[in-house]
Amino acid sequence: MRNSVVVVVSLLLMMMVCGPAMAESDQQIGQAPVKLGLDGALAMGQVESEQTPAASEEPQLLANMPKGFLTGLKGFENFVHPVSSPLYFFDPFIDTRANLLYVWHKFPKKSALKGGDLSVWAMPIWVALTERLQLTAVCDGYSRIRARALRPDEGWNDLAIGLKYNLIADVENQFLLSTGLSWRLSNGHGLTLHGGVDELTPYVTAGKAFGKWRTIGTLGGRIPMNRHMGNYILYENIHISYELLENFFPLVEFNGVQYLSNSDRLPLGVGGLDYANIGSNDVKGNSTFWGAAGFRWKATPHVEIGATYEFPLSTRENDIFDQRVTVSVILSL
Length: 333
Prior knowledge:
Elements: H1 2-17, H2 23-31, H3 37-63, E1 97-106, E2 116-122, E3 125-128, E4 133-138, E5 142-147, E6 153-156, E7 160-170, E8 175-184, E9 199-210, E10 213-224, E11 233-242, E12 248-259, E13 287-300, E14 303-312, E15 323-332
Antiparallel strand pairs: 1-2, 1-3, 1-15, 2-5, 3-4, 4-7, 5-6, 7-8, 8-9, 9-10, 10-11, 11-12, 12-13, 13-14, 14-15
């Protein structure tokens, strides 16, 4: 999380630099006594000529920025962002935003973890580099785990960085299609089930509006860089929302995870769902599905608040999902 914060703060500072940097110099020139005659005119002309190149640097700096830098792709402001499964539910939008995130997750008592809960605090960040290209920095943050089968612990999460590119942006029909690749680093705290294996996640994501209805879908794969330390996973996410009141969207979401392989890291019959890739040795062929119900409220054009309650749609004992609450506050440019 600390690395992603540095990125966005640096970009915001670049925007601030484009202010009137010469204000102090102009004030000093205005206070200098004015000379009369030819000598005075030549002196004043010299001062103006010395200031002209510096004053022209400001628009030149802005002109050199790629089109859409920080502002991203416009024309889709009537959509809202997904809430559930926030570490892997990539949406098709190209924008600049930070997601202040809290997740509380409860483990089933009859699962291999024998009950307990998990809390995650995170701030995923997305930065528009152009109208079509976006930098993603997700899966960061801090976790505290209290599972009865594990020693209670807490620590920093893995960091995932990547790029997303918009393939289709049809403003008239309110349709977007984007694709991307995220690289999850194994730099997190091992006793919170992070830090086990680097993981690549290629995905495709689309969004479509139908009147007051909004739909978003994502299909992705999670590829461990070491098959002995992580499982191959296929996942999918669906978001459906409706603008019931102005800027207020009740929503439902559906999420699924399929384990395509076994691994050798942990002797467990459950996986890490959308939280971690724990490399279990007895999960191949297992699938877990869960739903979410909640809302998104666009409090201002730059603040979006959301929350969901999430519940299993498959057998609770098949994995580590009993129930979950996700709270999200998005701050965007």
